[in-house]
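Standup notes
- HV: blocked on the assembly model, inputs below
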Amino acid sequence: MKKEKEQIDLLLRQNESEQLAGLNWNRLQISISKRLNQADRNKISMMSYRGVFKMTAGIVAAAAVVFIAVMIKTYMPTTVRFENGPKEIGTFVVSKDSAKVKILDSNQQGNQGKGRPSWIIIRTSEPKVADNGKNRDEDDFACLM
Amino acid sequence: MNGIPKANTGSVERLVKASQTGDRGSFDELVGLYQRRAMQVAVRMLGDADEAAEAVQNGFVKAYLNIDRLREPKRFEAWFFRIIANAAISQRKAVRAGTEKIKISGDCESKKVISPEQKEVGKELKEAIRMAMLKLSKKQAQAIVLFGIEDLPQDEVAKIMGCSAEAVRWHVFKARQKLRVLLKDFLE
């Protein structure tokens, strides 16, 4: 048993010696060095890629923050000084087909004296039913209100 | 150990620390110090110098890219041999996948009667060992290479393999048992 164990080890060792006998160690070291150079290059390009990726992600995130801020600001009620005192005005959605309407006051500061009427902004298309439907007048009235 | 000198531990630690700071020259020195022992491990596991060289190159690249993660530079050797052993195992998988047909012919070859001349170390032995090693499990191959032949301390081998010293001895025993059957034509 012990002899067989030694023989197996000897066989493996013999094969190893045989395999390594003709090996060009310098060539192997050069090959390893080349692979390490390649790894270095990959690492550098990966780092620069990461830099570009980080920058792009930052720009996208900043744009998203600005967009969200603008959206919040757009839909946040604002205080407008009317003749009879300041009032909060904001966007609201008229029911039926979700037409969004914003009322602005022509009498607010900056617009005074220009003779502009009060006006509304319909942010999306007018409700479909408002074209010729039987609820047309009601919808228009709701918008104007 | 087959005339291959072991690297001085102190200088290895210094080279490892320098490599961890990005000193490529120091890592090149480590390559010079360890390429022979790495090839020994890989050849013993794969049975073929070309495949072993591929595994060693992959192992060195992996070590190079991860050396900053090595917390204890004095334990470089065990850490490095684990990488080499794993690289050799990956190479084994590739070889196994690519040599299914050769494996079958290898089975037939092991049954044929080999003359005493053919028993000499050479192509047949290389091929037989290569096939036999491929038939060992991953743990058995690792164990016989690192524990059975490579003169690393038992506890180091156990750490490299991530199991107990008893488990390593068991894997070595099973590996030898299999090799005894697979290489019986080459045993006197």
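- HV (later): unblocked. Chain B touches chain A at residues 2, 24, 27-28, 31-32, 35-36, 39-40, 43-44, 47-49, 52-53, 56-58, 60-61, 64-65, 121-122, 125-126, 129, 144, 148-149, 176, 179-180, 183, 186-188 (CB under 8 Å). Residues 24-46 of chain B form the longest helix (23 residues).
- Next: hand off to the docking folks.
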